Each structure stands twice: as structure tokens, then as C-alpha cells.
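One such given next:

>
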Amino acid sequence: MSEDRATALTEYDKYYSEPQPHIAFYGKLVTKAIIDLADSTTQAHFGFVPTVYFDSFRLKTHPTTLQRLGLEISRQSTVAGIRFPSAACHFAGTVGHNVVVYKNAFLSPNSLQILGAEETVLEEWP
């Protein structure tokens, strides 16, 4: 999911060159148990360079670096998610972030609100 509406719309626009009817969802996340790949210290810890976030996963025959990291994190129950730079925003010349959350690790006091139009709360976790 995207952290804000602008990033969600930029993600959408990356895949559709002609206007299409759509619904944009984004979320507000509160957690301390997240790997923030937008943080330079975290990037250095993993040895990531910026291009790792912008590699296309389509047509790859093997999982990307981020897909392998996501798979490993999905196998545990402590880290609730990963925050990472939006490739769509990068290519559009803006800055935005996306988050993947792992529901099996998403327990109180973590919280997530899925938001729709005009910040209407559509769903809340936990």
C-alpha cells in the first residue's frame, strides 16, 4: 500500500497511460516493528543501493532482492512490515513510499487504517 494518496495515484498512473475509473487506497500505519528501507542506516545495514528499489520484478526468472527479503520477513512474527521508496514516484521525479504489512505479525499496539476517498476509514487493524 502507499503511505499517502499522491503516492497511490502515482503508482496507479505508472500502469495506466489512459484515464481509467479507479479507486485509490492508502494507509496510516503506526508501528515500531518495521524495517524502514527509506532510512539510510537501514539501507547500509542491508548493503542496499538505491537501484535495488527500482528493479522491475516482471519477467524475472528469480526473485528480486526485495522479494527475497519480504519472503524471509513473512516467515516470522515480530516485524510487522517493510517501508520502501516508491519506484513509480522515483520515475515520476517525486518522492513517495509504500509499505507492505504482514498480518500474522500485526498485533496491538500496532495499528493500521486503510483509507479511501477523503480519508474515509475503510478498515482498521488489529
Remarks:
- Residues 5-125 form one domain.
- The chain has one domain: 5-125.
- Helices lie at 5-15, 40-46, 65-74, 87-92.
